[in-house]
Amino acid sequence: MDEDFIAISESTRNEKVKNFFINNKKFLIIILTLIIMIVISYFGYDEIQRNKNKNLALKYNNIIIKFDLTNKTEVKNELIEIIYKKNPTYSPLALYFIIDNEIQTTNEEINNYFDVLINEINLDKEVKNLIIYKKGLFNADFETENNLIKILKPIINSDSVWKSHALYLIAEYFIDKNQKQKAKEFFNQIISNEKSNAKIVLESKRRLIRDFNE
Fold this sequence. Notes:
Elements: H1 2-23, H2 25-66, H3 72-83, H4 90-100, H5 107-120, H6 125-139, H7 145-156, H8 163-176, H9 180-192, H10 198-212
Helix pairs in contact: 3-4, 4-5, 5-6, 6-7, 7-8, 8-9, 9-10
């Protein structure tokens, strides 16, 4: 008797499942089609991005290989084009190459390129902070005290691994301006922060001993 009941229950359940698929066939086909399209789109997009990165890598490497003193204008334009591709890897490299090789560009243009990297590219948090620090480093030779601190403020107000680097840069800025008391404040901030880079802490202590007899 129990076996008959179980057999009837299984038969009923199978019939319900069958009827469900029959009654919802169109809906299920649509859902399945959407899932397949999403999977294809995902892997297709991923492949497109990989190809874009490969092409950009080849372009960047070709620029570096052919770089010499006679074609700086051509190289500059190609590097700027890479910057505006807003690629997390090669856009920063292109800007660093312009700066390191002193390819003729105004300070305002360089800062605009930095802003593209910082504000318009989806970067890892610490990579972004590194670029902010490099922007501060670039501006330290000519910017005002307030503007330099403004540039570095996102790092200074964070727990970034680049915080002690930014504080040290500002301290050195004030040393160069012969504003030793302000420099001392930033050296002390580095030393008092337990997350500061160990080498920068050591160098800050040396500077305090050397320049402030502490």
